[in-house]
Write a structure and sequence with these properties.
single chain, about 250 residues, alpha/beta, six-stranded mixed beta sheet, three-stranded antiparallel beta sheet, 9 helices
């Protein structure tokens, strides 16, 4: 792994009444040391995990709308305010990599089509055809299989990569993570809600809940606990959450 530390700087210029420092986990953020090739960011929606991931992408000079260093296109509100307040510590510094945002992937796919129409061999890194001509899940998987390479040192930042993947494809993605980190020289930071992806052995899991960023075990995550409880007690779980108010009053 190459990215060792993420630190907050320019604290004197921070206005805690303005986004993103109104987010408790970001407001209390000081420094993160990364100790594994794969680091997961977890937390409820709005907890700050994507906000920090976008800031890291910007400091890596990746397009904050999604893509690598050479993907030039714009999406409204894709710039990271937090990027001005963090510093990345590397050993060694690397420039290869990719920032994947599930919510703006459509725009990225359109950008690749435009490159192809301008004469570039743009589809070669995405399965040989337009990402728009593949299903949502297929296009994600084409990116992972063809754009990510174990032969080069790289860092990959992924925001909810499971969004379009079936459970079976998520398991296949775990194999890609294994090959790129164990056999290659790649590092991943992944914001996810997937209990399948979070189960990857040896990964660090950082929770953004409770107003701070702290390491937790797989079994401590809500993703594991809620999923396990649902699978073990499905009938009771559904009866409780689907009960009518009249039933509860009785």
């Amino acid at each position: 792994m190459s990215l060792k530390k993420i630190s907050l700087i320019n604290r004197n210029g921070i206005d805690t009444n303005r986004y993103p420092f109104t987010i408790p986990s970001i407001q209390s953020f000081e420094e993160l040391e990364l100790s594994a090739d794969i680091t997961f960011f977890v937390g409820e929606n709005g907890s700050g995990k994507s906000t920090l991931l976008e800031a890291i992408a910007e400091k890596c000079d990746f397009n904050p709308a999604g893509g690598g260093r050479n993907n030039y296109y714009e999406v409204h509100a894709s710039n990271s305010v937090l990027g001005d307040f963090i510093r990345l510590s590397w050993m060694p510094k690397i420039t290869n990599g990719f920032f994947m945002r599930a919510e703006t992937f459509y725009h990225f796919a359109t950008h690749i089509d435009e490159l192809y129409q301008d004469g570039a061999d743009a589809y070669r890194s995405y399965g040989g055809r337009s990402l728009h001509e593949q299903s949502h899940g297929e296009s994600f998987f084409s990116l992972f299989q063809n754009r990510f390479h174990e032969r080069e040192r790289a860092i990959y930042l992924l925001d909810e990569p499971e969004a379009a993947l079936s459970p079976q494809r998520q398991l296949a993605f775990l194999r890609i993570l294994h090959d790129l980190t164990v056999r290659g020289n790649c590092q991943f930071i992944i914001a996810t809600h997937s209990p399948i992806l979070l189960g990857y052995p040896g990964a660090t899991i950082l929770s953004f809940d409770e107003g701070k960023i702290e390491e937790v075990s797989y079994e401590q995550t809500d993703h594991y606990q809620i999923t396990k409880y649902f699978l073990d007690h499905r009938d009771k779980f559904l009866k409780d959450i689907l009960a009518d108010e009249t039933d509860i009053e009785e």
